[in-house]
Amino acid sequence: MAKKRGPGRPKGSTNKKKNDDKKDNVFARQIFAVFLALFAVLTLVGLFGAGGVALVKLGEIFRLIFGYAAFIMTVVVFWQAIQIIFHREDSKISAGTWISILVFLSLFAGLFQLMRADPTSKEFLLAGGGMVGWFLDYFFVPVIEKGVLALIYVVLILVLAMFAFSMSPRDVFTKIGNFFKREDKTEKENKKVAQELAKPAGERKFVVNGRSPELKPEKRKLLRKNDIQEDDDDDQAPEKPAVAQVNNTNWKFPSDKLLNNVPYKPHSGDTNEIASTIESTLEEFKIGGVVEGYNTGPRVTQYLYKPQAGIAMGRISACADNLKFNLGVKSLRIEAPIPGEKYVGIELPNDKPSFVSMRSIMESREWKDATKPLTFVVGKDISGKSVVLDLQDMPHLLIAGTTGSGKSVMLHTIMASLLFRNTPDDLKIIMIDPKGNEIAQFYEGMPHLIAPVVKGVSKEEIAKSVKILNWAVEEMNRRYDIFADKGVKDIKSFKKKYPEEKMPYIVFANDEWTSFMDSARAERETLQTAVQQLASKGRAAGFHEIIMMQAPRAKYIQGALKANIPAGFAFAVLNKMESNQIISQSGAEQLMGKGDMLMKTVEIKDPIRVQAAVIEDKEVDEIVGFLRQQSPAQYDEGLMEMLAKKDTGAAGSSGGGNSEYDRAVELVVGEGKASTSFLQRKMRIGYGKAAALIDEMEANGIVGPQDGSRPREVLVSSHEIDIETSE
User: Fold this and answer.
1) How far apart are the first and last CA of the chain?
2) At CA 458, angle to CA 410 and CA 633, rounded to 5?
3) Where does residue 3 rank: exposed (0-12), middle (13-18), buried (19+ CB within 10 A)?
4) Distance from the CA of 627 to the CA of which of 159, 446, 549, 586 falls in 20 to 30 A?
5) Cβ pair 569, 410 in contact under 8 A
6) Which of 330, 291, 333, 335 is nearest to 313 (CA)?
7) Nearest to 607 by CA among 618, 591, 628
């Protein structure tokens, strides 16, 4: 919510006086807190009958009032003093808190009084619950049985305690469970091994495959289970990673305790002085108006400027450089107007910025209320509100930004978010890392991967990419066939109607699309076609794409692809053209970098500014290491067999000299089904060539006409083909 500035505010001197008064009040409260802590300590000494006559008398007075609850009183008062000194920004405890403390002590006094043989007896001096406890029990004991009354006291005490410490009942039970939980020695050792596995191979302190003599049997078993090969004396490494058959019924999700908890404390500077400078600068250009409020975000503060009637928005935007000069800032962005409001937003860097930790978002109400499986953390908006999104609603995402702008960190944040809520049965991930070292080092061997991470842009890795994406298109079409047979329209309704059948969501992430396309010149058409097909039809089948790039250009984001990926995260880019490619308007060229971004989705038509959440490399290592500890990689068996097959050359050269068309007919008749994607995958040809072959087969009576998303019917048998060939 925007903070308001009242009309007719005085400048400099009055503002300084208010700040001085505030500092004096804080200092006075701090001194009060010191004396409050001293009072609690001295009272406790007197309650134990020590410290001299004065302290003993003081202790007797409080024993007379609260009975044995007086001991608890000293602890509570001391705790509140510490809160004032160290933990409260305004150094103040509200009246409501003091009232809660008084009720808390009274309930304890009543509970102690119940322990007496006759709680209603007036002989309460220095015993039981004192006068307060006697007063409560005198009224309640005659009408409520002692056992029931004791239970009521205990429940109310716990409720007040949770209120004081801002804890929910679920948090209490969780902490109790964690306190009594004990890890055996083997489990602790295995955690250490998982942490080592998360490191790059050259930094590990042991040799895997169970050969290091210092490893205990449990560790050797874990390492063999993960099937990780090192450059040691084993020369017979398998050609492809093994496919694990794992039961994920008792899957354990990582805890948010693996993430750093960085405090969120942005400071916008002297808002009154900045507002005055904005107004005076615009007045120099005959633009009248007033700053009526401001929103403080993590990195920037947005000032809400209300211009006088008749002022053109373009005139205000044209003053950006003058505002930047007079305010003495390196960056400034004007949003004229703010969508849905009668204000112009003038956004300035904070005096003291605050970065946003991923854990702070995961502890927010926004994250806890968003329960969909593909929900992921984004960051905090211009007002400091936590932002989370659902990949299913997007349903695909373009991310762009220069080096160091924060796009790779955003990919880690999205992946980590998905791993916090999905088992390998619920989610599978396809990763392509053209750089070879950006994401592969973190996620290789992760249980959620559907195939090993594609690393680099060598000929072999590009060939793997073609096979994987063609497999994905074929799997998408297979799922549509299942939906038709089951009488459902999409994966959501399928999961609801057939919850026992496994059909995971599949997320495809490419770290550098432009580099990938430039390197795969021969296969570019095939790859682009597969990605476009997944973008246009993938949502209903559970496929979602995340495509990242440094330099977004029209030749890399064709019209069909962009039309099916309306959501975009634009980090700092070089110019307006690049910004327009991602969010359909300029603005990203004015961003500050390091997580500062503009976000546009299907629902958010006008881009909003967000400071992206931060997750460090170490945190990613610990999360993925925790997952690897539970299970080795669970790759798709059919896809792994396809990747293991060696290419036999050009499509038209196989089959004893037959033509490309004859080869296609053999494949279709042998498989008993025909589709464009099937020929693309089997023959490694582009979409246009495959479609032409299908049309030719239809004209020759080999296959039937197209029937929606179903594969075409094959009208001839292999026997009939042999007869035609012999004739």
Assistant:
1) 82
2) 55
3) middle
4) 549
5) yes
6) 335
7) 591
Distance CA 80, CA 39 (A): 12
Please report the beta strands in 343-396, taking only residues with DSSP state E, as ranges in sequence order: 344-349, 356-357, 375-381, 386-390
CA distances from 159 to 87, 107, 149, 156, 419 (A): 22, 11, 15, 5, 34
pLDDT of amino acid 467: 92
pLDDT of residue 243: 60
Strand partners, 333: 347
Residue 43 CA to residue 57 CA, distance in Å, equals 10
How many CB atoms lie under 10 A from the CB of residue 141?
Answer: 17
Interacting residues of 350 by C-beta distance below 8 A, sequence separation 6+: 266, 267, 268, 269, 296, 297, 298, 299, 300, 301
For the chain, what percentages of helix, strand and coil (3-state, to nearest 5) are there?
50, 15, 40
345 backbone dihedrals φ, ψ, rounded to 5°: -90, 120
Q: Over the stretch 20-45, which tens digit does the pLDDT of each residue have?
A: 554 556 677 778 888 888 988 998 89
Q: Which residue is listed with tokens 């991470």?
A: 453
In angstroms, the CA 389 to CA 377 distance is 7
Phi, psi of 447 (to 5 degrees): -60, -30
Q: Which of 569, 539, 537 is nearest to 395 (CA)?
A: 539
pTM of this prediction exceeds 0.70: no
